[in-house]
Design brief:
It contains one helix and six strands; from the N terminus they run βαβββββ. A hairpin with a 4-residue loop joins strand 3 and strand 4.
């Protein structure tokens, strides 16, 4: 399944992790060095890349995501994508994600009529 992902890399700045931790209201250490992640979306040529970096609320499924494009990064707390497959499993990406859905243990599939780029409205909870 991972061969189907975008895989665009990002060295997540410590400041992004500090913001993700602050938005999650958790007590954690962001570390002192950037760490490398890869885009979790399916391959795409437009819009932001994105990666989930920290769960915020296990009950609602909200998570801190880092989005990047053209050297700029943004941290947002996002709800999970509400789409489910025929087994009742939810998509592993955030609400409003570009490209296709990603299911646990399955190949990704395209979004029919879905958005072409992720919506960005700045730090905070985005639904």
């Amino acid at each position: 399944m991972d061969a189907e992902r975008c895989h665009a890399p990002l060295d997540v700045p410590v400041a992004c992790m500090e913001l993700a931790i602050a938005l999650s209201a958790r007590s954690a250490n962001a570390g002192t060095r950037p760490f490398t992640v890869q885009c979790e979306f399916l391959p795409h040529s437009e819009g932001d890349h994105g990666v989930h970096v920290l769960y915020v609320n296990e009950q609602t499924g909200t998570a801190a995501w880092v989005f990047w494009r053209d050297g700029k990064t943004d941290v947002q707390v996002k709800y999970p994508c509400p789409e489910t497959d025929e087994r009742g499993k939810i998509c592993l990406l955030c609400v409003g994600h570009p490209t296709g859905h990603v299911w646990p243990g399955r190949q990704p599939r395209p979004v029919k009529g879905g958005p072409s780029v992720a919506r960005r409205t700045g730090p905070g909870l985005v639904g």
